[in-house]
Structure formats: C-alpha cells, structure tokens
Please model this.
Amino acid sequence: MRAMGRVLLACVLILSIMLPSCGQQDGESVAVQDNSHDDPIPSYILIDTDTALSVPTGLDVDDDLAVLFALDSSEVHIVGLTVTYGNAPIPDTYWDALHLMSMAGRGDIPVCKGAGWLSRELNEPTEASRFLIDTLLSFPAKAITVVCLGPLSNLAAALRQHPGIEERIQRLVLMGGNLRNGLVDLNFSAHPEATEHVLGTRIPKYVIPTETCIQTSFRREELQLVGEHPASVIYAFLPRLTLFVSVWGILGDLLYGSYPDRAPGGFFPWDVVAMAYVVAPHLFSREQYMTMHMREATLFSESTSDLLDHVHRVTVPCKIDTDAFRRLALSRICGVRRVGQ
Ligand SMILES: [Ca+2]
Model:
C-alpha cells in the first residue's frame, strides 16, 4: 500500500508541473503534502463544485464549506477543483474558488474553469473537462474519487470527449437528486442531458439526495463555534453564514415542511453532507440500491436488488448521524486557518 502511495504522490507532482494553466496562483511554490507515511493512505479526490460563498450573486454557501472540510481532512488528498455554474454564474463561482483557496494558502491545488449556464455544450472542451481527462489519465486506474457538488456538465463533458476515462474513475460521489419522483433539485435538473450521461456510466455511483442532506442543519450553535476561531478562513464569512441561518430558518419550513426527517432551524449543509460521505462514511447508514434515470428533465428513481449492473444503478446512504456530523464537519471547517492570521 505504501508503494502505491508513492506512485500516487509522484502523479501529483507530475500533474502539478503538467497543468499549470488551471488557476494555480502565480508566485507560489507547488507544495505537495507527503502523506506516504500515513496509514491509511488518503483517498485522492477531484472536486467539481459551484462555490459561491463570497460573491454577491451566490445563492448558497455549502460548496465552500465542503471544500474547507476536505482541506482539513487527512482522509483525503485534493488533486484539483473543477468549477461549474449553479449557485452563481461561472465567472463568479470560478472567482470564488480561487479566492477561497488563496485565503486558505492552498494555491498549489489547481482550480479549473468549466461550463456555464450558456456555455455547456458537452462536445466543447473547457479548461475543466481537459483537466478531468488529463488528471484521470495521469493517475493509476481507479485511484481517484470524483466528488460532484454542482450540475454535472463538466464531468459529462469529460466523459463525452474521452469515454476511456470511465474506466479510470474509482467511484463518483454525487450530491443531487430527490427520491420523490417528479420533484426538482438544482444539481441534477440543471442539465438533464449531463445527468443522464453520468448516471448511464458503469462507474460505481453514490448519490447523496435531498432526503439525506436535510436531516441535519447548521444553526446558531454551530456559528458560535465559528466565532471562537477568528484565525480561520470561515470566520471572515460569519455575517453571511448568520444571514443564511436566519433566512433558511423560514425557507426550510416552506420548502421541505413535508419531509419527516427534516432538521428544524438553520441552513442545510448539502455539499458538506456529501463530503462527509467521502471523509467519514461511518456516519451514514441505511444504504439503498436504486436505479436513477432522467426523463424529460425529471429524475425518476426506484429501488433495485440487481447489484451486478452498475449502469444507472446508484447507492444511496439514507441516514446520517446528525450530531456526529455537525461535530466533525465544524471542527474541520474551523481548522483551516486564513493565510496571515
Ligand atoms: Ca453545490
């Protein structure tokens, strides 16, 4: 296993040299963390995300929290971010991702601009689709987990442009979908063609749906913890997080009042829940096997017992330990210090 770790570390170094065009910040040295002595060896993850915490157009804050969570988690090693649209237009999500990584002093991690609402033709290469392809081909087969936290345009484009990478991906963790047929969520519904393309691959797929994400929330209690860490990156965004707690205290009841396991109060940390499944899968239980299809821009899912065919089959963790999740996620998010603090 340690030899495998050294091979993967070498891939990170080579990749850092090969792909400087993706948003690595000028003047910063490439500092690759040597995790080869750790046991167990961390999982290598590539995060596709629509970060929007710090831009006025941002509709949600969860992507940035999920990235911070991953940055402070020794269980994973981030090989790059590809940025997509969703919570904000692509120029804003891309800027936000660069800004976040700069604040965290992690300019060594490539940040690549991807598709936008009006520029998401799957046959049209983007910086993000090229990075996905090059990275997956550069690493050993099945070394990388791809974590998708936004609409699936970037991943679908990479798969369309180079179908061979399907065999290179260890697994997909997708935040999206709703188990109540006919209801809409942003990530899967934003680009139905892309979603159907990804669901139709044979890659092992793990879907974190609405029903699982809204079992937990970040409340005023959690923000008090953030307030105790003034040197952290997230501390700078305390006023915005406070606003989200207040607004979603009302919206949560209006939009999800009929969900029996919904957490009352605060805002739902959607993508942070998906990242928790990557970092700490022991926090989840009641896994179900389902088939998922997009039909006419709507997701349809049903339970299945066919475990042999990965096409359109997904694994859905249906229950989360909410208190343990809050403790772990907040401690890790607050653990990322702001450069210069
Ligand atoms: Ca997202």
